[in-house]
Write a structure and sequence with these properties.
- InterPro entries: Glyco_trans_2-like, Nucleotide-diphossugar_trans.
- It comes from Marivirga atlantica.
- By secondary structure, the chain is α/β, with parallel strands linked by helices.
- The protein has 2 domains: about 90 residues, no CATH class; about 260 residues, Spore Coat Polysaccharide Biosynthesis Protein SpsA, Chain A.
- Strands 3-2-1-4-7-6-8-5 form an 8-stranded mixed β-sheet, with helices on both faces.
- Helix 2 links the parallel strand 1 and strand 2.
- The longest helix is centred in the last third of the chain and has 38 residues.
- It is globular, with a radius of gyration of 22 Å.
Length: about 400
């Protein structure tokens, strides 16, 4: 039992702390022995691109999104702006119709984002495609900073950075989500520098058109699916922090839970789909990154946390030693802080003291909820958008 306890503890520590440290050290070593510069397109060489914005009943923010899109710094003659509003029954179509330089695609039938994108793929005639969400706002140089990486023919996709801002309306959900994405963004920077990003956020993501195959029906998180498929085919997926998508945090923990459960279900689905990536002898560095960054986080770590608590209780009752008593007390205290964070959230309050324990437990509980939804076939691939607090831009 003691051996299992320490093994599970090592897995949890490695997943959240050990891998970032190992990754950082490997990147440092690579910088010492490999000073090869990244290849970038010069501004005059920028290729034609399609910017695809998938919308579903986003009329409330559509004018603002369009204004942000039209203000992006990219040659007009090399940019095709495409808005897809399949299934929308608000006045999104009327708003988009006011802009002659926007290509509008609409179908009354709502089949989800994947189906909408698959439907218009044959109509896109540019060598590169950039996807972004309707509820995100891009920095002015986002497209240039994404596309310049394609000067390197080994690059098959480029992911932008997701930045989450919290407001008074969403302080608990937004602050936790924002802290998580800062941590995640740093890992992606190092992943990209070592070899390749393992999974991209759909808020801002670009691909080479000839690598963009239709996403199969039923895929829950299509951005992750696409980026991993491209990496498995031998191309690198870069991460560009200077191309970022800004969005407000979820308007409440309930809304954030809905989003996290869906992502967890999609992650577990991906674990089954990409079982081949566990073959280190075939995929090498990519396999190491996938196992450490994704596989452990979606499977091993949540299970190990539960086993740790149960075995720790058993060892204390069995009188295994003072060390286990101290460790159990530490676990109980940590979960107490998380419970207090949940209590504060229910009362509409927030506390930075409880934020990290609460959000950590919240994420891992979401994995279990996502697993049961996936197991029961209740997790639809059709995106049900989470309510977001209003983004206050300066």
């Amino acid at each position: 039992m003691e051996l299992v306890f320490w093994f599970c503890l090592a897995l949890v520590v490695y997943t959240y702390l050990g891998y970032p440290v190992v990754l950082f050290l490997l990147v440092k070593l690579k910088r010492l022995f490999n000073r090869q510069k990244l290849l970038f397109f010069e501004p005059s060489e920028l290729p034609r691109v399609s910017l695809v914005v998938a919308c579903y009943n986003e009329a409330e923010i559509l004018e603002e999104k369009i204004a942000n899109t039209l203000a992006l710094s990219y040659p007009d003659d090399k940019l095709d702006i495409c808005f897809v509003t399949d299934g929308s029954d608000d006045n999104s179509d009327e708003i988009i119709a006011k802009y002659a330089n926007i290509k509008h695609f609409h179908s009354d039938e709502r089949k989800g984002k994947n189906a909408a994108i698959n439907r218009i793929l044959p109509l896109l005639k540019t060598p590169y495609i950039i996807f972004c969400d309707a509820n995100t706002f891009l920095n002015k140089e986002a497209l240039v900073n994404l596309v310049r990486h394609y000067k390197d023919e080994k690059v098959g996709a480029v992911a932008g950075e997701k930045r989450v801002f919290s407001t008074n309306e969403d302080e608990n959900a937004g602050a936790g989500e924002g802290a998580y994405w800062k941590y995640e963004s740093q890992l992606k920077k190092w992943d990209s520098e070592l070899y390749s990003v393992v999974g991209a956020a759909g808020e801002l993501f670009s691909v080479k058109s000839d690598l963009m195959d239709p996403v199969p029906d039923g895929i829950i998180i299509e951005d992750f699916f696409l980026s991993v498929k491209i990496a498995m085919n031998g191309y690198k997926v870069r991460y560009e922090p200077e191309a970022y998508a800004m969005e407000a945090g979820s308007s409440s923990i309930a809304e954030e839970r809905k989003r996290k459960v869906r992502i967890s279900a999609g992650g577990l689905q991906a674990v089954g789909l990409f079982a081949g990536l566990l073959n280190f002898f075939k995929y090498g560095t990519l396999s190491f990154q996938y196992i450490s960054h994704r596989f452990f986080r979606w499977t091993v770590a949540p299970l190990s946390l539960l086993i740790l608590l149960l075995i720790n209780i058993y060892l204390v009752v069995a009188g295994a030693g003072i060390v286990y008593t101290v460790l159990l007390a530490s676990q109980v205290f940590f979960y107490f802080l998380a419970a207090m964070g949940n209590l504060y959230e229910l009362k509409g309050k927030s506390s930075k003291v409880f934020l990290i324990p609460f959000y950590f437990v919240f994420m891992n509980v979401s994995v279990y909820q996502g697993f049961f939804r996936l197991l029961k076939g209740k997790q639809s691939a059709v995106w049900e958008k989470s309510a977001r607090a209003k983004l206050k831009k300066t």
